[in-house]
Design brief:
about 25% strand, Nucleotidyltransferase, domain 5, 10 helices, six-stranded mixed beta sheet, five-stranded mixed beta sheet
Length: about 300
């Protein structure tokens, strides 16, 4: 039996990741493809137990802190949004119903914004983790991903944010559109060229997309250059739209290394200094901060 105080859970649309925690230290980790998108509401508990049952100590309730799409309307239990301006975390974690008496599952609520309409579900935990590790930090957080987020933080609160479908658009265009016939590999110079084009003339982006196909047919454009330029066009256009967030601000990138590196490269080309941090580390720090919101009786666990 591994030493275990609590379990951290990051439950997205496609994947489930869990960590056995002793204090703030990871003892063991596991993951599956049992994301929210493939589960009926009554199947969440079983999907979690499939990964963590061997970790659970006998005769004790183990607290579980979960973030992500597990708290969506289609998730295990709906953890309602909190409106900005607000702290990234607050009292009001949502308890998920369980049949197994060894589990006490609490879900972190998301954050919403009325104008322009926008929502965060999962990234608020990364923001909370960042702020827990960087007290008094004011500036902008960029969270690259399928739906990238730009979050303005001041005085310990999320002031405003904006979401971009950049990652999803890249996946759709490169794998399901006519462009898929000329996309393979990667070329760094092609990415830099795409960023510049997308940033300078985002109004030309639709034409630039088809030009990738045409250049391949007429001039033999390298598939790696085409794919990298497509990514650069999308990220460049995102940076143009997000300029009110990053201009004159401190910027921290919280994301997977490869994608975060691309955003750092693009921002560097605009003379924007950035700090890069690991998204998983921020998620765990945020879930640890959420654990501190539990009543002591819930956090310590009780004998069944």
């Amino acid at each position: 039996m591994i030493p275990l105080d609590w379990i951290a859970v990051d439950w997205g649309t496609s994947h489930l990741r869990v960590w056995a925690m002793q204090g703030d230290t990871v003892q063991q980790t596991a993951q599956s493809d049992q994301g929210m998108g493939v589960l009926a509401r009554d199947a969440f508990e079983g999907a979690l137990l499939a990964l963590v049952e061997d970790w659970l100590p006998a005769g004790r309730i183990t607290p579980v802190l979960a973030c992500g799409m597990v708290g969506s309307r289609q998730g295990w239990v709906e953890a309602r949004y909190r409106a900005v301006p607000c702290t990234a975390l607050a009292d009001g974690l949502t308890r998920a119903p369980t049949r197994d008496l060894r589990l006490s599952v609490h879900v972190v609520p998301g954050i919403c914004q009325a104008q322009p309409a926008d929502v965060i579900r999962g990234e608020e935990t990364q923001v909370a983790g960042f702020l827990a590790l960087n007290h008094g930090w004011d500036g902008v957080l960029c969270l690259p991903g399928t739906h990238s987020k730009w979050v303005h933080v001041s005085a310990g609160e999320v002031v405003s944010f904006q979401t971009f479908l950049t990652g999803e658009m890249f996946a759709l265009l490169s794998s399901q559109s006519v462009l898929r016939h000329s996309m393979a590999g990667w070329d760094a110079a092609g990415f830099a060229d795409g960023v510049q084009q997308g940033f300078d003339r985002p109004d030309r982006m639709m034409a630039r997309f088809f030009a990738l196909r045409a250049e391949g047919l007429l001039h033999g454009l390298d598939p790696g250059t085409a794919r990298a330029r497509l990514s650069g066009l999308l990220i460049g256009a995102e940076l143009a739209a997000a300029k009110p967030y990053w201009l004159g601000q401190r910027v921290a990138l919280l994301g997977a290394q490869a994608l975060s590196d691309l955003y750092a490269q693009a921002l560097s080309g605009l003379s924007v200094p950035v700090t890069q941090l690991d998204a998983t580390e921020m998620t765990l720090a945020g879930l640890s901060a959420a654990r501190a919101l539990l009543p002591e009786s819930e956090d310590r666990g009780c004998v069944n």
